[in-house]
Here is the input.
Amino acid sequence: MHTTVGIIGGGPAGLLLARLLHKAGVDSVVLESRDRAYVEQRQRAGVLEQATVDALRDCGAGERLDREGLVHHGIELRFDRRAHRVDFPSLAQGRGVTIYAQTEVVKDLIALQLAEGGPLLFGAQVREVTGADTERPAVRFAHNGREQTLTCDYVVGCDGFHGVAREAFPEHLRRTYERTYPYSWLGVLADVPPSCEELIYAHSPRGFALHSLRSPQVSRLYLQVPAGDDPANWPDERIWDELDARFAVDGDWRLERGPITAKSVLPMRSFVTEPMRFGRLFLAGDAAHIVPPTGAKGLNLAATDVIVLARAFAHLQAAGSTELLDAYSDICLRRVWRAEHFSSFMTTTLHTAPDQNPFDTRLQLSQLDRIASSPHAAAELAENYVGLPIEGP
Ligand code: RFL
Ligand code: PHB
Here is the structure.
């Protein structure tokens, strides 16, 4: 088997890349280790930047998104029992974000790719990438009990944080940067209409809480919990009581309760590997970088990586020039580090560390008060949240 671009991983990065390449007339094969149902049901992100929405529309996956996606023009910050709205149109050049679950993005992309794209193989476990620094890189994988090889002109590792593509980079050419946080998130899905019109990010003496949504009928809620906590420690009543306490605000507001349908604990990590290219092997999405979810950036960074990469492959195909492929790593890393900074800022400003002292808490509250009282400080948050422009042609 041979293809122009071998794509490892059928998450949002790999699937969107395959669609964008298909549109540009570039052949690809996607190898995904899990089965279709697993990939389509993995609960994750919910906030799409405009550039992500535009790319999905561009590659034909905009129809249901335009029908069911909810456009939001602000978020609410809660701290000190006060609520403050950050208004995107006035602070961030009229832009907004779209609430549309990652599960739905993935379902739409898979359906399209199977209907009219190159091969997308489920249950294809990639073992290793070889010859990344040669003219003919190859991907070794197991599928239907058989060991197989896909030779490629280029390989893109979209295989997430635990993938194998990164391992093909020689140790001495690779730098990694990492921070772990001393807390996790407990994420729950509940069959109850959201108690908010826009997302609520809450700082409280009991820790962070986030109110998000999946649809007008389904709420998505998160609580800061001790690192690696067990969801079994969180019976439904305890979750609702804790959410009530953390979202508490002076004035009228009520958190509606309903049946909880899913609970899981997520680690919080910042991670970057540099560069994002070795020879003919490129990394995109979580394979190259992880952000804590507080800034809602992970899925969007994955999308922008592959938007930049698809443009570079289209340019190679049309003009025979590797100029944009050569610029890929630098262009993406600039944006990645901005998102790393923003995600880390949101995380450390809103969470309570286990060893936090009263001085740290006063600094957090002072920063939140600054955002609430200064349009300049609020604009910095808003511009980063809605997403910065993508560099390059
Ligand atoms: P993924 O989604 O991890 O997909 C990688 C795919 O590669 C496959 N794979 C392999 N396939 C073949 N052979 C191998 N050896 C393989 N090894 C792995 C895996 O099965 C998988 O299908 O990475 P990708 O595509 O880079 O996408 C990244 C996003 O999924 C991630 O950044 C976001 O979900 C992060 N994130 C959020 N991002 C946002 O932009 N906005 C949000 O609101 C947001 N909320 C979140 C989040 C992540 C969360 N979790 C669970 C970490 C909320 C949560 C709770
Ligand atoms: C989500 O809806 O899952 C979500 C929203 C905002 C975040 C993180 C997760 O910052």
User: Anything to note?
Assistant: Residues 2-70+102-179+269-351 form a domain with the FAD/NAD(P)-binding domain fold (CATH 3.50.50.60).
